[in-house]
Amino acid sequence: MARILPALASQIILFFLFSATLVYGEEKGFATPLDRKQHKLRKEKLSHFHFFFHDIQSGRNPTSIPVVPPPSNSSKTAFGVVFIFDNPLTLGPKLSSKTVGKAQGLFSSASQEEFALLMVMNFAFIEGKYNGSSLSILGRNPGATSKVREFPVVGGSGLFRFARGYALATTHDLNMKTGDAIIEYNLYVFHY
Ligand SMILES: *[C@@H]1O[C@H](CO)[C@@H](O)[C@H](O)[C@H]1NC(C)=O
Ligand SMILES: *[C@@H]1O[C@H](CO)[C@@H](O)[C@H](O)[C@H]1NC(C)=O
């Protein structure tokens, strides 16, 4: 008995070592745990970004274009309409103020009863160290019916890898005749 036990123990240890190697071997190809520090994920920061979004639908150089008309004009909410935009983002409310990036994406009327847009967009920044980095936003936009609209920041690229947060949008100026709008944005973003 006294001699069998140590032999058994070493068998068991060998078995576990072997199965651990198997599991590790399997994980190496498909999913591998990584060290956060080696991937520059040391300290998460919270940043605030403030700028103005220019949705220009009129004139010779519109930046926001209807690409799919609503299927019928019977709907009050223009349900189904799709706009694609490449809208300037500026530091101040004037279009002539410093450009910090572009908002590229689409909005679509996605509600049949009340006015609500589906917003899908990337904020592609060119300012300072954020040049080349972008934030991705996906949200519901009840438009001017709500003073402050909130959209989730669902991710990002470059300096915004692993980003998450929210954007608050308020109308700075809206021309009901042309549809042109200047929207003030405040973003609160966790990133590394
Ligand atoms: C659409 O608009 C046109 C012109 O205003 C009108 O004649 C027509 O009846 C409308 N159609 C519907 C389905 O409301
Ligand atoms: C941003 O980066 C691009 C590509 O590296 C460069 O061409 C451009 O001048 C930069 N813009 C600003 C405003 O720094």
Automatic annotation (TrEMBL):
| Family annotation (InterPro entries) | Allene_oxi_cyc_Dirigent (IPR044859), Dirigent (IPR004265)
In the UniProt record, the signal sequence range is 1-25
Question: Any idea where this protein resides?
Answer: Secreted, Extracellular space, Apoplast
Q: What Gene3D superfamilies does this protein's entry cite?
A: Allene oxide cyclase-like
One GO cellular component assignment for this chain's record is: apoplast
Q: Per the UniProt entry, what is one GO biological process? A: phenylpropanoid biosynthetic process
Listed Pfam families: Dirigent
Primary location group: secreted
UniProt keyword list: Apoplast, Secreted, Signal
Q: How does it assemble?
A: Homodimer.
Q: What does this protein do?
A: Dirigent proteins impart stereoselectivity on the phenoxy radical-coupling reaction, yielding optically active lignans from two molecules of coniferyl alcohol in the biosynthesis of lignans, flavonolignans, and alkaloids and thus plays a central role in plant secondary metabolism.
Q: Which family does it belong to?
A: Belongs to the plant dirigent protein family.
Task: Kindly provide the name given to this protein in its UniProt entry.
Answer: Dirigent protein
What is the organism of origin for this protein? Carpinus fangiana
